[in-house]
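Folded chain entry —
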Amino acid sequence: MTQRPEPYRALVTGQTFDALARLQAMATARGISLAGLALAWLLADERVTQVVIGPGRPEHLAPVGEALQHPLTAQERAEVGGVVP
């Protein structure tokens, strides 16, 4: 976003940062990173058949492990999805 911020300027709002704070709180309550929560959200969606991960370094795989170790229930997935309209 920082290299070409123009298309994303509309997202720099209090609402966006409030949503990110709520998602971070959900991730923290689960003991995982925000990236791990995002991946768990994708993996919990039965319509998603694959998630492509392109790690640049081995430590970039940590959120994948978090998502696999802490899967979301359907209700948790709906809660996460409800944070962002």
